[in-house]
Amino acid sequence: MRVVVIEDEPALLAQLAQRMRAEGWRVDTSSDGHDGLYQLLEYPADLAVVDLGLPGLSGLEVIRQLRAQQRRVPVLILTARGQWQEKVEGLEAGADDYLVKPFHIEELMARLKALARRAAGAVSARLDFGPLVIDTDAQAVSLDGRAISLTAFEYLLLEQLSRHAGQVISKQTLSDYLYPHDEDRDSNVIEVLIARLRRKLDPTDTERFIETLRGRGYRFKVSIAESGDTPSN
Questions:
Q1: SS3 breakdown of the chain: % helix, strand, coil, rounded to 5?
Q2: Closest CA to 114 of 199, 1, 191
Q3: 68 and 75 in contact (C-beta within 8 Å)?
Q4: Beta-carbon neighbour count of residue 119 at 10 Å?
Q5: What are phi and psi of 56, to 5 degrees?
Q6: Domain 2-119 adopts which CATH fold?
Q7: Does CATH place domain 126-226 in 1.10.10.10?
Q8: DSSP of 31-64, one letter per residue?
Q9: Cα(120)–Cα(47) distance, rounded to whole angstroms?
Q10: Residue 167 DSSP class
Q11: Are 6 and 62 in contact (CB under 8 A)?
Q12: CA 155/CA 151 separation, integer angstroms
């Protein structure tokens, strides 16, 4: 899971980022509305946490501009206690949920996980693909009831593909998802990770969960019969 956190209180920003990274999530942070909006528009994210009282560009305006660009990333807003008008304005601008400061960080995490499940159309943390089961809360993967050991990057890649099953995702989008936006990337890394995932998830080469669509990217298939495109290994 990749999250963008836009918060101008340094201590709170650091605390949120540390807790989310401990969960195994990729986290990009910003303390300025303009920079935070840029990150949300330029790089793929699963969730956003937006403080409404931001410098540069208010949290409300960040959300309005994000929605004006047809970006549907779920947004949880943070607002000061007693500012009920802010909650209403934030929800009307397109936010999906809110928390009032001060809050317990475990409640924030639970709400974010619920938003991610809702966005993926799932009612639970368990994603079932026949013999393959992915528990997104525990970040555990099993095949035919047997636990599969994945590296952090392998798991992030698998979760991103499976949450968007049936959709074609480009190599560039996957690279942007896995790595910080200011980090140099090797274009071959995604291919290597895909190959490793295939070996672990489909050792007999019968399920073919992950398709390669040449010149377009990769697609995680719910079933082999879903697509008319010819997969490439």
A1: 40, 20, 35
A2: 1
A3: no
A4: 15
A5: 80, -65
A6: Rossmann fold (3.40.50)
A7: yes
A8: SSHHHHHHHHHHS--SEEEEESS-SSS-HHHHHH
A9: 11
A10: S
A11: yes
A12: 6
User: Dihedral (C-alpha) 53, 56, 61, 65: value to the nearest 10 degrees?
Assistant: -140
Quick check: do 2-119 and 126-226 share a fold?
no
Instruction: Report how far residue 157's alpha carbon sits from residue 169's, in angstroms, rounded to the nearest whole number.
Output: 11
pLDDT in tens, 4-29: 999 999 999 999 999 999 988 999 99
Q: Are 65 and 40 in contact (CB under 8 A)?
A: no
CA atoms of 44 and 216, how far apart (whole Å): 17
Burial class (CB in 10 A: 0-12, 13-18, 19+), 126: middle
Q: How far apart are CA 231 and CA 206, in angstroms?
A: 13
pLDDT in tens, 71-101: 889 999 998 866 677 888 888 999 999 999 9
Angle, CA of 122, 127 and 130, to the nearest 5°: 130
pLDDT tens digits, one per residue of 158-182 = 988 998 888 999 988 888 787 765 5
Strands in 210-213's sheet, in edge-to-edge order, are: 168-169, 217-220, 210-213
Residue 84, phi then psi, degrees to nearest 5? -65, -30
**Coil, strand or helix: which one is 231?**
coil
Q: CA separation (Å) from 218 to 80, 135, 195?
A: 42, 22, 12
Q: Which two tokens stand for residue 135?
A: 């528990």
- Which pTM value belongs to this model? 0.69
Domain assignments of the chain as residue spans, ordered by start: 2-119, 126-226
